[in-house]
Design goal:
By secondary structure, the protein is of the alpha+beta class. It has 3 helices and 11 strands, in the order αββββααβββββββ.
Length: 175
């Protein structure tokens, strides 16, 4: 007859529970990936939105306030362009047909504010758009995560655009 080890049961339980115990902090701390689903139509051509970038920055008209700028695009945008304070190169990239997208500024009141941009080769690069041309339905809006639905439509002269998208993003701070 084999002698019973009093610690064998405890070791078995610990062996089975260890992966769960070790996995919990990883799962709790894992950030959800940024995502967007939707499309933008410019001059009758539709592009699927596949990338979203969000950053907090000072409000251009009220320096003591912060706004959130959400940029949704059909193609990836270089990090160097995203990190640029003014993002002026976005217009050149759009003019060259390297991406299509929409940029919307959202105030802390969770409403579109100021001006945004529609980027497309069909528009000669970019056109400015107004806050009242966008709607935002927030699902989450805090320092750690922004989620919701954005949509809008407008024209600039004869140029027409419209979009609808649902997105989830972790905002970065402007560098």
């Amino acid at each position: 007859m084999r002698a019973r080890n009093p610690f064998a049961s405890a070791r078995r339980v610990l062996f089975l529970a260890a992966p769960l115990l070790l996995g919990l902090p990883l799962a709790a701390g894992a950030a959800e990936a940024d995502s967007v689903t939707g499309s933008i139509t410019v001059e009758g051509k539709t592009y699927n939105l596949e990338h979203v970038y969000a950053r907090r920055q000072p409000n251009p008209s009220e320096k003591t306030q912060t706004v959130l700028v959400v940029l949704m695009t059909d193609k990836d945008v270089p990090k160097s362009v995203l990190d640029d304070k003014y993002r002026l190169e976005l217009t050149d990239l759009a003019r060259d047909g390297k991406f299509h997208g929409i940029s919307v500024t959202i105030g802390l009141d969770k409403k579109p504010t100021g001006t945004g941009w529609t980027y497309a080769k069909e528009l000669g690069g970019a056109i400015v758009n107004r806050a009242d041309q966008h709607t935002f339905e927030p699902a989450r809006f805090d320092d750690l995560r922004v989620e919701g639905k954005l949509s809008g439509r407008g024209s600039f002269g004869a140029d027409k655009w419209e979009y609808t998208a649902a997105f989830k993003a972790t905002p970065s701070a402007m560098k």
